[in-house]
Amino acid sequence: MATQEGIEWGDMVIVSSVVIGAATFLLRKYLFGNKAAQEMTIAQRAALEEAQKIGVEKSKQHNPERDIVDKMRKASKNVVILYGSQTGTAEDFATRLSKDIQSQAVRPLVLDPELYDWQYLSRLRSDELVIFVLATAGEGEPTDNMEAWYKALVSDAESPDDSDVPEFCQADDNPPLDENMPLQGISYAMFGLGNNTYEQFNHHARVVDRRLLALGADRIGERGEGDDDIDIEEDFARWKDATLPLIRQHLGMSTLSDSGDESAPEPSWKVVEMDASQTWAKGELFSGAVTTYDSRHPFAAPVTAAVELTPAADRHLLHVEVDLAGSGMRHEAGDHIGVYPTNTDEEVDLLLAALGLLDKADAPIAVQATDPYAPQQQLFPVEATTYRAAFRHYLEITTPVPRSQIKSLVLPFARSEAARTFLRPLAEDKDVHAAVVTAGCMSLGRLINAVRDVEKQADVLGNGEEPFVLPVHAAIELCPRLQARLYSISSSGKVHPERPTITAVVLQYDAKTEQAVQAKMGARRCGVATNYLLGVLRYLRGDRIVDLEASNDNNDDNRLRTGHLLSQSAELHTVADLSSVSASRDAKNYLLQSLTLQPSPGSVSNKRALTMPVFIRKSTFRLPVDNATPVIMVGPGTGLAPMRAFVQERAQTARANPDQPMGTTLLFFGARTESKDYMYREELEKLFEDIQQVAPESQIITAFSRDQPQKIYVQHRLKENAELIYRTLLCEQQKLNGASRAHVYVCGDAKNMAKDVSRALAALIAEREDVSEDVASKWVSEMRKLSRYQEDVWS
Ligand SMILES: Cc1cc2nc3c(=O)[nH]c(=O)nc-3n(C[C@H](O)[C@H](O)[C@H](O)COP(=O)(O)O)c2cc1C
Questions:
Q1: Where is the FAD-binding FR-type domain (predicted)?
Q2: CB of residue 88 inside a 6 A radius of ligand 1
Q3: Cβ-count burial of 508 within 10 angstroms (0-12 exposed, 13-18 middle, 19+ buried)?
Q4: What per-residue confidence (pLDDT) applies to 559?
Q5: Distance between CA atoms of 413 and 419, rounded to whole angstroms?
Q6: Is 485 helix (H, G, I), strand (E, B) or coil?
Q7: Does 753 have pLDDT greater than 80?
Q8: Is the CB of 86 under 6 A from ligand 1?
Q9: The overall pTM is greater than 0.80
């Protein structure tokens, strides 16, 4: 019981300080405002009031550049779609939604909330509409591009019904705003994107929705909730089917759905072929005078190391290190690194051939908006590109084509009966789509080829019918933007300030259904980013021996390419650069040859140097500030990444401060087999020797699932080591003289492992404390709230 009291007492202290802190914050106006004012002279008070008035007036000043309503009206639109997106899915859904609802009466405009201010929402008229498409990120957090809106609308309010109503903009042409319900008369629709394996499922959309309702706005239809653990495409389609008729009705249109319409939509983008005799290369992909690097302006970091960590034949486990020197970027243990990958030559060629573009793949093109009022006038961050570059660097071309996209952007271009008969079920029947397209990993290039095969068998040409041709603008519209991939950094920023490392396993998928295999779509598909990293490794290792100099082709063009590749030129992703890279097509047997090549002086062995576009994303997954706090880390597989950074940091601290107390440091690591999958073994064991000098109970506890007949995972090891964990979790307090108790970190698979670990922990607390598992689970939840139980998980 003593320990239980310990828990309650300890928690009470922390909980009460949180409560006191919150109350102090809420009452700050009364607690401090008056006292400060009392101490001022009359003149000082007058000056302060004047300054406050100016500040308020200034914040009220209309900034048309950040006003969604201004933007919308200038472009003659009546619907604004705002997306909250971290990795591009919500952005893609928003763009597709815009196409789906577009008609004479419904004129949507897709905007990024980061570039606009929330205050202007109140300026919308009743014959206009805002649609939110909001993904949830982090642990139930808003996406970065919705952070300011979220903070103003939601998180500054204690509850959705909070009386502290944010101050919206009063439009001249609207009636005065209701003080408590300033969004009365505003209509919106809401679709959330999430994943049910996260505790806070769809939290972002849910709380924004509640808050908008509380502020008086009127929601059209139900809030949609997409779950990408199951079938987010279908969730989206269902929500659209239910909501679009209501939206049409709201905007004064007939409610008839257009499900029978197979006509081609108006293109949003046009491809302009440019004068090939001119030099269009303008320098780096993210050009301009970039002084601060971020996700929109990644840093071309030289790759300083790339190795395979374990020798398994059936998979590749990679360790890649980059050099951030000169970028000004800093990383701390627990942060993520974003990497912009490229598609493989193989996939790019497949699509180029399917679109009939191989002959002019390297000709300069520009992709421009067809709507002169569209906020984004060119699709890519460079003025000119090539078809090859567009499909390699900017567009996601390997994912299975969603059903709704087949319906709106592929089927309309099928002119033969055979093509229509093949495509219709894929567009209309979700089970057929799942069996053939999803399970068959049918990318756009493969889908086009499948239609061609069907037409060939039906002898479409012989019948005098027109064969299927997908216009390039439809292909460009159909492919989402290629997004950066985030990896938990596996090195400590304190120990290796400019050298973050990535630990990743190369992803490969096989087409799953018999149908798909029979239809010859059964080839192996590869994850874009991890295969890009594998390509980086193979290039540096020298696997790609088919060097450009070795080419038999001696024409001028090729010499130029060779020169370009070996020069010190910083041109990256340019027309010339891209064609140079594609010259080495012969190394086809490798999964990836297309790299962002840029010789960088002073890094790895001369001409094998290359760079990767990267940026750092800060996280809240952090070691406790006080080293005396014990830590329990659970990181099986590549979930070891941030734990390795933590261990490096703790070992360094232990070496530097042998007289300072350090909390017990436990690492639970799991993998398939000890002999093949125990990555960083020697290094970790060495680091733990250092830690044990000051925290003797510290240790690595491993679980190798395939080293014995029955499967053993990290959660089993937690159970077996219940006594040690319990001691580390709860009893260190006395030993360490009042230091706060252990922090628990879990990294890796969200769907099974993270849940099992949480349950295992609750179970062992329940047993030791003799309380129900329900009570113990609440303690774990409390630990989460107090940031003593942190997860960095993915599904
Ligand atoms: C790091 C990370 C954290 C996430 N956290 C949550 C979460 O707390 N709740 C949830 O419902 N979904 C969560 N998701 C799932 C995303 O919301 C979902 O995958 C969504 O489709 C991503 O949209 P985006 O690509 O536009 O960012 C998370 C996904 C990632 C990668």
A1: 296-558
A2: yes
A3: middle
A4: 24
A5: 9
A6: strand
A7: yes
A8: yes
A9: no
Domain boundaries, the chain: 19-57, 64-250, 342-483, 631-794
Q: Tokens standing for 778?
A: 């609440």
- Phi, psi angle pair for 442, to nearest 5°: -85, 100
The DSSP H or E segment spanning 192 is strand 187-194
295: Cβ below 6 Å to ligand 1? Answer: no
**In the predicted model, what is the mean pLDDT of residues 85-108?**
90
pLDDT-derived band at 105, boundaries 50, 70, 90: confident
CATH of 342-483, one of 1.20.990.10, 1.10.3210.10, 1.10.10.350, 1.10.10.200: 1.20.990.10
CA dihedral 18, 22, 28, 30 (to 10 degrees): -100
What whole-number distance in Å separates Cα of residue 321 and Cα of residue 603? 12
The class (CATH top level) of 631-794 is: alpha beta
**Cα angle 652, 654, 657; round to 5:** 105
Q: Whose CA is nearest to atom 28 of ligand 1?
A: 137
Single out the residue of 390, 297, 307 nearest to residue 615, CA to CA. 297
Q: Is ligand 1 within 6 A of the CB of residue 201? A: yes
Q: Which CATH number fits domain 64-250: 3.40.50.300, 3.40.50.360, 1.10.10.10, 3.40.190.150?
A: 3.40.50.360
User: For the segment 159-204, what is each residue's pLDDT rounded down to a tens digit?
Assistant: 555 557 888 888 766 778 888 899 999 999 999 999 998 889 999 9
Q: Is the CB of 488 under 6 A from ligand 1?
A: no
- Helices first, then strands: H and E counts in the chain: 28, 22
Residue 61, classified by CB atoms within 10 Å of its CB into exposed (0-12), middle (13-18) or buried (19+), is: exposed
- In terms of residues, how long is the chain? 795
- 222-225 long-range Cβ contacts below 8 angstroms, 24+ apart: 223/190, 223/191, 223/192, 224/190, 224/191, 224/192, 225/191, 225/192, 225/194, 225/201
Q: Is 89 a pocket residue for ligand 1 (Cβ < 6 Å)?
A: yes
Distance CA 596, CA 611 (A): 6
Tell me, using a 6 A CB cutoff, whether residue 715 lines ligand 1: no
What pLDDT, on a 0 to 100 scale, did the predictor assign at position 297? Answer: 84
Q: Are 154 and 211 in contact (CB under 8 A)?
A: yes
Which of 198, 223, 751 to probe ligand 1 with, by most ligand atoms within 8 A of CB? 198
